[in-house]
Design a protein that fits this description.
heterodimer; A: 365 residues; mainly alpha; ABC transporter involved in vitamin B12 uptake, BtuC; two-stranded antiparallel sheet; globular; B: 256 residues; alpha/beta; Rossmann fold; six-stranded mixed β-sheet; four-stranded antiparallel β-sheet; 10 helices; 41% helix; binds adenosine-5'-triphosphate; binds magnesium ion
């Protein structure tokens, strides 16, 4: 199967490890392309939401999962992306330049903000980024000329290649738009990971001292990672604005920042897959709980509708279980299942037992 | 001319003078070893040369250039690589990835080129890989190439850290206690590798080491330090016989 022998350096450089691997992703893309015919309008909308949250999650994954800098403020960059996009479109900008402007604005603001913020680490960094998220809630109201104040902004329809795309009247086109953006961003992300910049991010995450000793400009690496992270999240914000059709100060609450972080933790910090897995959970969990509720109500006559906040509680429970039993998140689970299938029937129990990690002191002795 | 000149280097941490007026020159192609009791300031000297610490006084001249004002991330590119006393590898990456990060200071691509993985980036990646494979061959690491660091035995990690340092094509390599925690056999291998680095790769080695048999075997010159100050310099035998050195070691044993 995929136990191939590598014969060229390109085998390690290429995105796909051989034909079989490529075929799997080709199949996935084919399924995603066919989705509008396989799913009803409602579920297509949910899938679109999964794509958008995946994009936002990818953004956070870069800085938190791959560079090791926690951010509890990424909703702020979704907001920046969303407001930039809508404000420019209302001033007559075409969708594509406005979308790029969302990415650039979020990225540049991210780069500027990252300088003072990324000097901190751990809990201080968490608090500083959280503050960012809180500030943006107020700014969304105060910056009325851009954000439309309390009322917020409505998303105008998107004119693209002669089509008028709008989430409700042309859900398929909007879905394809989101899919295209996500695929392009994911490819860029993977490219970065397989070259020097991506490796420097991992280096910063795992040992800042040796990163510096190996020639990584740590400040620059963090800034670049944060800026690109914010740019991706900004793109997601812009698309989200068109999904929600209207955004205001309540669209990007601190809770969104926290959910995003939970999303990447559940998905699996430090894996690109994780951003996607996490997004599926975040979007579909409330859905599944609603279905479970109806199911219980109809079949067993048990009514749990009386407990509000059920999904948040379940979500939290899921995280707890994850952190305790599978710190590598859903990606870790997936990885194990995949290995089990590949090695069947040779899988050994305890194969993934965590190996003892050696003590690492803060001091550079 | 000396490859590395350390002149009157000092640093203190909250009143404690960890390094106090240390000077020495390392000649091209030699293995120069720092010895001294625990807490003598040996690792601190390394951190000063790597520019991880800002010296309180003194100069560091490498290859004719004063690097005392250079940021830490410039040092690798100039040709100084190092290992750490408490192995500082990237635990969640493979051996290959670690060695490739070792080539960071030789990168010739920009992030926006990498984003699109332009043909130039692919060429550069192949070249980095080729260089890294030479190091893998040299240190006999082929069996571990795709293994994650987190699962490797201690002895192998020590070698991987040296491999990562060598990947940066250094002129000078700083080894902080390369043999600590190694078995007799592994220490033997380490001695061979240090000799090979010197003879085959033409590297200059600056080393900190406690194992005196290893020190005697590979070092051209030895400098003993204690409490941040230089005590004696010479061959391993000369330094070991120096009364001041004997006293310094005895002194720590009494207090220990
Ligand atoms: N970052 C730091 N902050 C405070 N004190 C430090 C720091 N680094 C080193 N020191 C102190 O400087 C002195 C020298 O430490 P150093 O690590 O250089 O010793 P060493 O010679 O490498 O000893 P060992 O053989 O145990 O590795 C010690 O007293 C140590 O506590
Ligand atoms: Mg030391």
């Amino acid at each position: 199967m995929s136990n191939r022998f590598k014969s060229r350096y390109d085998d390690d450089i290429n995105l796909f490890e051989g034909r079989w691997h490529l075929a799997q992703y080709a199949l996935l893309i084919a399924l995603l392309l066919a989705a509008p015919w396989l799913l009803g309008v409602y579920y297509l909308g949910e899938l679109t939401a999964v794509l958008i949250w995946s994009l936002a999650g990818l953004g956070l994954m870069l800085i938190s999962g791959h560079t090791g800098q926690v951010s509890l403020g990424h909703a702020a960059f979704m907001a920046i992306g969303a407001f930039t996009n809508l404000a420019l479109m209302m001033r007559g900008w075409h969708f594509i330049p406005a979308l790029l402007a969302s990415a650039v604005t979020s990225g540049v603001l991210g780069a500027i903000i990252s300088r003072p913020i990324l000097r901190m680490s751990g809990i201080y960094l968490a608090i500083a980024t959280l503050a960012l998220s809180i500030i943006i809630e107020d700014l969304s109201i105060l910056a009325e000329p851009i954000t439309g104040g309390v009322a917020g902004l409505f998303a105008p329809p998107i004119d693209l290649f002669g089509l008028t795309i709008d989430r409700y009247s042309s859900p398929k086109a909007f879905y394809y738009l989101c899919l295209t953006v996500l695929v392009i961003v994911t490819l860029g992300y993977l490219n970065l990971l397989r070259s020097a910049s991506g490796r420097s991010f991992l280096a910063v995450r795992d040992s800042e001292v040796s990163a510096r000793a190996l020639g990584v400009n740590v400040t620059r690496a963090k800034t670049l990672s944060f800026a690109l992270s914010c740019a991706m999240t900004g793109l997601a914000g812009a698309l989200y604005a068109h999904l929600a059709q209207a955004v205001n100060y309540e669209s990007f609450l601190v809770l969104i920042s926290i959910t995003l972080l939970l999303q990447v933790v559940i998905g699996g910090l430090g894996s690109v897959h994780g951003a996607f897995f996490g997004a599926i959970v975040v979007v579909l969990l409330p859905q599944s709980i609603a279905m479970l509720r109806d199911f219980l109500n109809n079949t067993a006559g048990i009514s749990i509708a009386a407990y509000p906040g059920m999904d948040t509680a379940l979500f939290a429970l899921l995280i707890l279980l994850m952190v305790i039993y599978e710190p590598r998140g859903l990606y870790g689970v997936w990885f194990k299942v995949r290995t089990w299938l590949q090695l069947f029937p040779l899988y050994r129990k305890g194969m993934f037992r965590r190996t003892r990690t050696y003590l690492k002191t803060e001091r550079q002795r | 001319m000396s490859l590395l000149q350390v002149k009157d280097l000092s640093i203190s941490f909250g009143g404690v003078k960890a390094v106090d007026g240390v000077s020495f020159d390392v000649e091209p192609g030699e293995v120069f070893t720092l010895v001294g009791p625990n807490g003598a300031g040996k690792s601190t000297i390394f951190n000063l040369i790597s520019r991880l610490y800002e010296p309180g006084g003194g100069r560091i001249i490498f290859d004719g250039e004063d690097i005392t004002g250079r940021p830490a991330h410039d040092v690798a590119g100039l040709g100084i690589a190092r290992t750490f006393q408490n192995i500082e590898l990237f635990d969640h990456s493979s051996v290959l990835q670690n060695l490739l990060i070792g080539r960071h200071c030789r990168r010739d691509t920009r992030w926006f080129e990498e984003l699109f993985f332009l043909p130039k980036v692919r060429r550069s990646e192949r070249e980095h890989r080729r260089q890294v494979e030479e190091v893998i061959d040299f240190l006999d690491l082929a069996a571990y190439r795709d293994k994650l660091i987190a699962g490797l035995p201690y002895g192998v990690r020590k070698v991987v850290e040296i491999a990562r340092a060598l990947s940066s094509e250094p002129k000078l390599i700083l080894l902080d206690e390369p043999a600590s925690g190694l078995s007799v056999e592994e220490t033997q291998n380490m001695a061979w590798w240090i000799e090979d680095m010197q003879k085959d790769l033409g590297l200059t080695v600056l080393m900190v080491e406690h194992d005196m048999s290893l020190v005697s075997r590979v070092s051209n010159r030895v400098l003993a330090v204690a409490e941040g100050r230089p005590l004696a310099m010479g061959t391993a035998a000369e330094v070991q016989a120096d009364p001041k050195v004997i006293e310094a070691y005895l002194g720590t044993e009494e207090t220990a």
